[in-house]
Amino acid sequence: MTEGISQPDQPETLEGGSKDLFSKFDDIIQMREGLLASGIEDPFNLVMEKVLSPTRAICNGRDTILLGTYNYMGMTFDPDVIDAGKQALADFGTGTTGSRVLNGTYQGHRECEEALKEFYAMDHAMVFSTGYLANLGIISTIAGKGDYIILDIDSHASIWDGCAMGNAEVVPFKHNDVEAMEKRLRRLPEDAGKLVILEGVYSMLGDVAPLKEMVAVAKKYGAMVLVDEAHSMGFIGENGRGVVEDAGVIDDVDFIIGTFSKSVGTVGGFCVSNHPKFEILRLVCRPYVFTASLPPSVVATAETSIRKLMHGHNKRAHLWENSKRLHKGLTQMGFELGTKEPQSAIVAVIMPDLEKGAMMWEALLKEGLYVNLARPPATPANMTLLRCSLCAEHSDEEVGTILGMFERAGKATGILGQTSDQSEGS
Amino acid sequence: MDRAEVDSKIRTLIEPFNKKGVELKDETTFAGDLEFDSLTVMDFVAEIEDEFDIIITMNQQADIENYGQLVDAVNKLQD
């Protein structure tokens, strides 16, 4: 699911009402006004005036620890990465002003794709201008009319939008439910083209998909498999290739989609694959063709970062320690978390309701901690969540500080007392 | 199974989802009258799919707004 905060991942159809085309947004305008009328700082209008490091920024005038940026490996201020970007900016200019298939493929784009092929040990890599465009492009292009897409109901907005943009029949199944997935695959016509879409880590609760079982089932029914590893690249798996590597199924997966805007630390998206005909997608994939390519400085920083991530074993180990420590500390305080055990670098704290969640978010911000507030309808089961994403650059001391902030804010808002009362009662 | 049998089966399946006990007519809408949100729709559709051993794709769901249309669609799909 998405980092999108005010709308569901699955596209909605809004009905028109009066002549004002904006009247269809009245409900959300009202909900927003209601939240702000309670005097709270707008959770969706935060400005970072200065960024000090991957883990620190001045937010709304306050020195703040960042715990909601998906900057998992802390590459945004890596000196080698910054140097590569500066050099490319000087040598190749500020932008390509063109499509990848016309004047927008520079040496740097090729080198970035070479780095991805090495990182994943795969034959082909295609770099898109964002991760969103990578899902939009690959899904809408390869699954056509008469084909079937079988996907997890908690899929990210970019996956849903890829489905909406294409012409395939869309069949969702219950989140991480292998049996529900198999039932649906079994009922589809045997000779139809099928694409199963899964994510390694689901970003709302930070839970991991049972890819070993799911990929085996998909293959049993002759489906191609696409796995979005946006939230695991660089961190999960021995070489940081994601949950597919950790689960030992990377060779059975047809397409891996990823992003440069999380562990890689810049912006952009990609798809890697061993499909022998993969390269044709460069000519037929509209979100690849009909948009400008990434600036040279961006692909240069991405390439350098990806190559450094190949050797990021120590950082990965420290990030796991951070995630485990935060998860354990918050559990011991009495917070309810999205997963029983830490499964990724995301720790989701479940709030009793939106009002309490917004209060807690603001209390944390005033303590000097930024986390993501996620609320219905963007969340599974209409939960309100405070999502924390850890960084390999969070020091042991910072994690300790973060835990102290959570404890004070939890008590001040009454959430800690309340949560433990509830768990005693149930 | 004929249309009447499909209708009666779906009536049984919808009961746990029809929390307000809204009277079911062919023109009863899921979003408006029954106030189904997307999560309820998914669970309800999964129940029907399992019961009739069919698939109702999201593309087909988009054309089903009321109860009568659902019964018609399931009746057609089970053939």
TrEMBL record, chain A:
The keyword Signal does not apply. GO terms for molecular function: pyridoxal phosphate binding; transaminase activity. This is Aminotransferase class I/II-fold pyridoxal phosphate-dependent enzyme. Belongs to the class-II pyridoxal-phosphate-dependent aminotransferase family. Keywords: Aminotransferase, Pyridoxal phosphate, Transferase. Transmembrane segments: none annotated. PROSITE patterns: AA_TRANSFER_CLASS_2. It comes from Pontixanthobacter luteolus. Residues 63-402 form the Aminotransferase class I/classII large domain. Its cofactor is pyridoxal 5'-phosphate. It holds the Pfam family Aminotran_1_2.
UniProtKB/TrEMBL annotation, chain B:
It comes from the Bacteria. Residues 1-78 form the Carrier domain. Pfam families: PP-binding (PF00550). This is Acyl carrier protein.
